[in-house]
Amino acid sequence: METEQKLSVKDVSIRYGLILGLVLTIFSILISVLGYAGNRTIGYAGYLLMILVVVQAHIYYKSEGNGFLSFGQGLGIGTLVGAIAGAINSLVMYIYVKFIDSSVLDAIKDLQLEEMEKQGLLRSKWIKQWKLVPFLPSRK
User: Fold this and answer.
1) Of the residues 79, 80, 116, 125, which has the fewest C-beta atoms closer than 10 A?
2) What is the pLDDT of residue 139?
3) Using alpha carbons only, what angle is made at residue 97 by residues 84 and 119, rounded to the nearest 5 degrees?
């Protein structure tokens, strides 16, 4: 007798989580290297990548699992894919920013300060509080 191996939510989630983690890591490093860190418009492309990979994971599970995908299974796949990819991307970006190129944080901070100035939110009390945050590099 042939035993049929059942496709599990965990297997699909790990597979597509690793794929999305790799894609987002390459995308994030590329954005940083090209100097687009903090750019909102390009950041939306990252969300589009996430949506595309999660939808592809759902399609794969449904096609390999007798054409059925329950709400709980879909939610589980989406959540686990996002968690795995987020963990991978966060770890790699932490290593990148901490040991390879810390100027990314300065670029993001400068963009945020410009936005605050445009909105009239930048006051001396904000600058004092900003300097008290120990993990952010000081403004030059």
Assistant:
1) 125
2) 47
3) 95
